[in-house]
From TrEMBL, chain A:
The keyword tRNA-binding does not apply. One of its GO terms (molecular function) is ATP binding. Residues 24-280 form the CoA carboxyltransferase N-terminal domain. Gene3D superfamilies: 2-enoyl-CoA Hydratase, Chain A, domain 1 (3.90.226.10). Component of the acetyl coenzyme A carboxylase (ACC) complex. Biotin carboxylase (BC) catalyzes the carboxylation of biotin on its carrier protein (BCCP) and then the CO(2) group is transferred by the transcarboxylase to acetyl-CoA to form malonyl-CoA. Keywords: ATP-binding, Cytoplasm, Fatty acid biosynthesis, Fatty acid metabolism, Ligase, Lipid biosynthesis, Lipid metabolism, Nucleotide-binding, Transferase. This is Acetyl-coenzyme A carboxylase carboxyl transferase subunit beta. Acetyl-CoA carboxylase is a heterohexamer composed of biotin carboxyl carrier protein (AccB), biotin carboxylase (AccC) and two subunits each of ACCase subunit alpha (AccA) and ACCase subunit beta (AccD). The gene is accD. It is found in: Cytoplasm.
UniProtKB/TrEMBL annotation, chain B:
Residues 43-293 form the CoA carboxyltransferase C-terminal domain. The gene is accA. This is Acetyl-coenzyme A carboxylase carboxyl transferase subunit alpha. GO terms for biological process: fatty acid biosynthetic process; malonyl-CoA biosynthetic process. It is found in: Cytoplasm. It catalyses: N(6)-carboxybiotinyl-L-lysyl-[protein] + acetyl-CoA = N(6)-biotinyl-L-lysyl-[protein] + malonyl-CoA. NCBIfam families: accA, AccA_sub, PRK05724.1. Its main location: cytoplasm. GO terms for molecular function: acetyl-CoA carboxylase activity; ATP binding; carboxyl- or carbamoyltransferase activity.
Length: 280, 329
């Protein structure tokens, strides 16, 4: 039975001959449902078996929502300054550079306008993979400029929030982006232009405590974590386990902070309907 | 018994000597007036010396000094007791961590609102350590709207370690309550002056912090996070709080330099807690000065400037243009 025994110990295949299985052929939801990634893409990155919404980025959202060939991104080149010369275990500028290289993004938000069923819409969409979707000066400025565009072109605004909160490395500058975005939204409101806030997993901290909660209508993806303080902090503060379903979209709907929850697969239709009802 | 911070040790020693000198004079009727006078001068000099060279972390410590005056102390002295506290958000309850009401300065009525901390263990719990729930922010908004209706200027005092991160706070929409205030304060038709009198921590501070003029007392801090929490997140330990305090640029001087606030109110040597009368006087003078100036412009102009001011805050790069840092109107 020598064929059954490993004669030479260890891995003997040289690295250059190693065979790789391509990454990401399959996706497994937290409940254990497995789906081919190409199939997942067809379902707006929602696992059909259990409705799990996989986290996606601005690229995917723009593709899902805008009519084909209508999208135009604005203020693409804005990137972060380093007003405080912030340095912890790493320089802030290095952190930003590393994140830019890794993600191919400039910062944690992209802004683009286009059409949804022929109706104009401006979307500011956050990217969680860029330093946790944290809000720094670039996020504030891009939202501010997209509001300028909305006012000038009488275009409704949608902000897709996906953020851990303020960007600590910009300290008070980051805090003041809460004030900046909220102040700017008052102008949009004065011009009676609709603002739809779409909250996705996760939306916490300074983003929740500013523009994300200030929509004319607030809507959310199912099962998203939405809150001001993070669950860990609350747990430490009260010294108890948190109830199941605490700080989910469904919890917020129940407590009156959302207008409705919309499955990502129906987002485009629902959005088109909403825009039409605001307009006509 | 006054409390002394570790770096105030030389001040404490001098006060002890002063006490002893006074004791001797009283008991043995020896004239020690010269010694007393010398000691008093020396105390003042020492205070000046220590307080002129405080590190950011030491200022954070001073901002939390247990003897430091709190919101109701300011209101009480500034209005000479002519103040009526108003309670409740008309929805859920009365938050004890934020207080407010009408009061007067020289016959003119103002709306005063501020975070309130407690002076002893029992009161600290009662005030929830100055950490407000959504009701606090909604009470503040109700009072601001009341002030707007009757055309009274609004003064807010900021002194909080943060909005309360509790279960009920989340249920009742802590984020929404703060966000709503940011938007509503932007549009208030009456003049608004916000003063950081102690700790200015994050959204909990900003929730009553949108004003035509935002001022900080000399030994206070204002940032997106406390140095301890910043340290624990970035360095995974509380030990780097002094480095974090430096990195965050959270002192009044830094905030003014970065044009994120509009002015600094000087504290007496030894800090606000060492000479309350002086700090109350300084704050009162600043309030009167700023409100007088603000009332000379129309409410439309004030709102426009307020929006412009906050919208100009930020630091980012854009190719083909020069790096932009905060520029104010």
């Amino acid at each position: 039975m020598s064929w059954f025994k490993r004669i030479k110990k260890g891995i003997t295949t040289p690295t250059k001959d190693k065979k790789e299985t391509p990454d990401g052929l399959w996706f497994k939801s937290p409940k254990g449902h497995i789906i081919e990634t190409s199939e997942l893409e067809k379902h707006a990155y929602v696992v059909p078996a259990d409705g799990y919404h996989k986290r996606i980025g601005s690229d995917e959202y723009f593709n899902l929502i805008f009519d084909e060939g209508t999208m135009k991104e604005i203020n693409k080149s804005l990137s972060s300054g380093d007003p405080l010369k912030f340095e912890d275990t790493k320089k802030y500028t290095d952190r930003v550079k590393a994140s830019q290289q890794k993600t191919g993004l400039k910062d944690a938000i992209r802004t683009a306008h286009g059409k949804v069923d022929g109706q104009p819409l401006m979307i500011a969409c956050m990217d969680f993979k860029f330093i946790g979707g944290s809000m720094g000066s670039v996020v504030g400025e891009k939202i501010s400029r997209s509001i300028d565009y909305c006012i000038k072109h009488k275009t409704p605004l949608m902000i897709i929030s996906k953020s851990g909160g303020a960007r600590m490395m910009e300290a008070a500058f980051s805090l003041m982006q809460m004030a900046k975005t909220s102040a700017k939204l008052t102008l949009l409101s004065q011009h009676k232009i609709p603002y739809i806030s779409y909250l996705t997993d996760p939306t916490t901290g300074g983003v929740t405590a500013s523009f994300a909660m200030l929509g004319d209508i607030n809507i959310a993806e199912p099962g998203a974590l939405i809150g001001f303080a993070g669950p860990r902090v609350i747990k430490e503060t009260i010294g108890k386990d948190l109830p199941e379903g605490f700080q989910t979209s469904e919890f917020l709907l129940e407590h009156g902070f959302l207008d409705f929850i919309v499955d990502r697969r129906e987002l485009r239709d629902k959005l088109s309907q909403t825009l039409r009802l605001f307009k006509n | 018994m006054p409390t002394y911070l570790d770096f105030e040790e030389p001040i404490r020693e001098l006060y002890e000597q002063l006490d002893r000198a006074r004791d001797i004079e009283e008991k043995s009727k020896v004239d020690t007036s010269k010694t007393i006078k010398d000691l008093e001068n020396k105390i003042l000099d020492t205070k000046k010396e220590i307080y002129s060279g405080l590190t950011p972390w030491q200022r954070v410590q001073v901002s939390r000094h247990p003897d430091r005056p709190y919101t109701l102390d300011y209101i009480e002295h500034i209005t000479d007791g002519d103040f009526i506290e108003l309670h409740g958000d008309r929805n859920v309850k009365d938050d004890k961590a934020i207080v407010g009401g009408f009061g007067s300065i020289n016959g003119k009525t103002y709306m005063f609102i501020g975070h309130q901390k407690g002076i002893n263990t029992k009161m600290r719990q009662y005030r929830n350590f100055g950490m407000a729930n959504p009701e606090g922010y909604r009470k503040a908004l109700r009072l601001m709207k009341l002030a707007e209706k009757f055309n009274k200027p609004v003064i807010t005092f900021i002194d909080t370690p943060g909005a309360y991160p509790g279960l009920e706070a989340e249920e009742r929409g802590q984020g929404e309550a703060i966000a709503r205030n940011l938007m509503e304060m932007t549009q208030l038709k009456v003049p608004v002056v916000c003063i950081v009198i102690g700790e200015g921590a994050s959204g909990g501070a900003l929730g009553i912090g949108i004003g035509d003029k935002v001022l900080m007392l000399e030994n206070t801090w204002y940032s997106v996070i406390s140095p301890e929490s910043c340290s624990s997140i970035l360095w995974r330990s509380w030990e780097q709080k002094e480095i974090a305090a430096n990195a965050l640029k959270l002192t009044a001087k830094d905030m003014l330099k970065n044009k994120l606030i509009d002015g600094i109110i000087k504290e007496p040597p030894g800090g606000a807690h060492s000479d309350r009368e002086t700090i109350f006087g300084n704050v009162k003078k600043e309030i009167k000065k700023h409100i007088k100036a603000l009332e000379s412009s129309s409410s439309e102009d004030r709102i426009e400037h307020r929006i412009e001011k906050f919208c100009s805050m930020g630091a980012y790069k854009e190719p083909a243009k020069k790096t932009k840092t905060t520029a104010k109107q």
